[in-house]
Amino acid sequence: MPHHAYPIFKPVFRLFINSNLEIVSQFENGNRIHSIITGGHSESSDNHYPFNVKINSGVNWLYLNKQSQILTLDASIRAETHEGHGVYIRFKGQAKFTDSLKAVLDETANTMEYWDTEFFIKPVIETDGSTRVNWVNDKLFVGRGRYVRDEAGQLVLEFFVSMCH
Asked: What's the pTM?
C-alpha cells in the first residue's frame, strides 16, 4: 500500500480540563457519572497552528461499564480565545478503567502516565467570529489522555491532541 494512503497525525495542542465527578445513577451493569467542567485551558504545540483558549464551563457525561471496564465520555465545553471569541469543543471518547485510572479518580494517587490506560477522544471544535484559531473548524482531531490531580487536589483531564491530515 502506498505510504500516502495512511493518515498522518500532527501534534497541535494540549488540552487541560478541570472537573469534578458525581455518581448520578448506579445500575447493575455500570455507573452514570456527571462531571461539571469548571475551567481549564489549551496550549499550542506548534506555532503554525495556534490554539490557546481558556475553558469557561462545560459538562461531561461518563458511563462506566462494570463488565467491560470501559469508561465512555461525552463532553460539551464552552471556551474563549484571548480576544473573547467563543470556542465550542465537543468530544466523545473512551478509556480502559485500569487500576492507575481508578487510583486517580478515588484520590489514592495524584497522577498516572498516558500509557497506563487506553484513553482516546475525538474532539470536534467550532469557533465563532474571525480569529486566529478558525483553522480548527474543518479539521479531524484525535487525543490521548489521562487523569491527574493538581496541587489543590482538583481533578484534571489532560490530552495531547493531534490533527489528522
From this structure: 0.92
